Amino acid sequence: MVRPLDGITVVSLEQAVAAPFASRQLSDLGARVIKIERDAGDFARAYDTKVHGEASYFVWINRNKESVVLDLKTEQGIAALRGLVSQADVFIQNLAPGAVERLGLSSAQALELNPQLIYVSISGYGRGGEYEQKKAYDLLVQCETGLLSVTGTPEAPAKVGISVADIAAGMYAYSGVLSALIQRGRTGKGDVLEISMLEALGEWMSQPYLYAEYGGEQQPRSGAQHATIAPYGPFTTNDGTVFFGIQNEREWAKFCEIVLQDESVATDSRFNAGAIRVQNRPALHARIDEVFSTISSVEALARLDEAGIANAQLRDMRQFSAHPQLEARHRWREVELPNGETARSLIPPVTASSYEAQMGAIPALGAHTEAVLKEFGLN
User: Fold this and answer.
1) What secondary structure does DSSP assign to 213-244, as a single string?
2) Coil, helix or strand at residue 353
3) Which residues, in sequence order, are CB contacts of 79 under 8 Å at separation 6+?
4) pTM for this structure?
5) Contact yes or no for 52/339 (Cβ under 8 A)
């Protein structure tokens, strides 16, 4: 089997989430990823011990990799890193601003060593400006982009429950590398890519920014309800909660006819257009609640399906793990952990007809140091 990135070597001086997520996705496509760690290891190894003694974050974003421990406080360690970079296709780093330059591996220095290198830097806020040296963690970047201002309830903001700023940066680093590899195939030259968490997540904040910038008001926090579409969110039945969303007037009419079983609601002047329904959300919800409070969740979902209204059950993580659609589509694989146990993991969301994603082991700290340095002539 030939994978798209077979033969591509990535050296990644990485920690935490953003850079490891980018490099893992490259490894899924067949790239060889050499993960450079300090003696104590990537600190994500110690975030928790929930997966048979391993950290859930680390297991998620470090499969397929080779772990090489280098002491970058020594000339020997720096020389080994430079030697690896000189023979790599891609170099990724997400150290603190200025750290990699102090190692003698600025983008200019690295491309002098290896003119075909794709050099990737991930940081919190990017080069230049007063925020360049500011520490950036995921929640703090969520704050700086305004994400918390539109997330939560009217009474209190809330953080997103996953590391969304790190994930955004990792996704753009990943897609940037793919683009740069195509470009290198045309020009024969390497490139320098810079990704900041602020700008990556900022791209995803474009809709609420545009809403506020040109609409004259902040998009309100609305809990699990959609801020600008109604009805769209959770509704309580007589035995639980269901979610559904209505996107247009055709769906609204069907909802009233089949779910509420009262066609007159569709033409009620308080509810007969999307923007008007948002303005009259309390009355709208009260009318829906009159019906939903008398039926079960199973009945509500059945009516919604009959009407062609998008809907969902509110699942927790165990229920997601048992999702029948993932099982039906054979999306789970076992990934080997350093201690010999395995972790059930999802295959990547892009399914190709010509290859399967690589789903290799999680590396033990430094497990590949000797072999890799010997292979590259660096020991």
Assistant:
1) HHHSSPPPP-TTS-SSSSSEEEEE-SSSEEEE
2) coil
3) 378
4) 0.92
5) yes
Token digits for 360? 């290799």
Q: Which amino acid type is present at position 370?
A: E
Phi and psi, residue 306, nearest 5°: -60, -35
Rounded CA-CA distance 148/139 in Å is 9
Q: CA angle 120-204-324, nearest 5°?
A: 100
Q: Which residues contact 196 (CB under 8 A, 6 or more apart)?
A: 122, 123, 124, 125, 126, 169
Burial of 23 (0-12, 13-18, 19+ CB in 10 A): buried
Q: Domains of the chain (ranges plus CATH)? A: 9-205+326-375 (3.40.50.10540), 232-315 (3.30.1540.10)
Round to whole Å and give the CA distance between 313 and 322. 13
CA angle 104, 106, 110 (to 5 degrees): 85
What is the maximal distance between C-alpha atoms in the chain? 80
Reading the block at residue 154, the tokens are 């009217």
Peptide bond before residue 231 is cis, with ω within 30 degrees of 0: yes
First to last CA, the chain: 33
- Would you give per-residue pLDDT tens digits along the chain (379 residues)? 899 999 999 999 999 999 999 999 999 999 999 999 999 999 999 999 999 999 999 999 999 999 999 999 999 999 999 999 999 999 999 999 999 999 999 999 999 999 999 999 999 999 999 999 999 999 999 999 999 999 999 999 999 999 999 999 999 999 999 999 999 999 999 999 999 999 999 999 999 999 999 999 998 898 999 988 999 999 999 999 999 999 999 999 999 999 999 999 999 999 999 999 999 999 999 999 999 999 999 999 999 999 999 999 889 999 999 999 999 999 999 999 999 999 999 999 999 999 999 999 999 999 999 999 999 998 8
Cα separation of 201 and 180, whole Å? 21
Residue showing tokens 């793990």: 321
CB 378 within 8 A of CB 79: yes
Q: Is 147 exposed, middle or buried (0-12, 13-18, 19+ CB in 10 A)?
A: buried
Contacts of residue 331, defined as CB under 8 A and 6 or more positions apart, other chains included, come to 346, 347
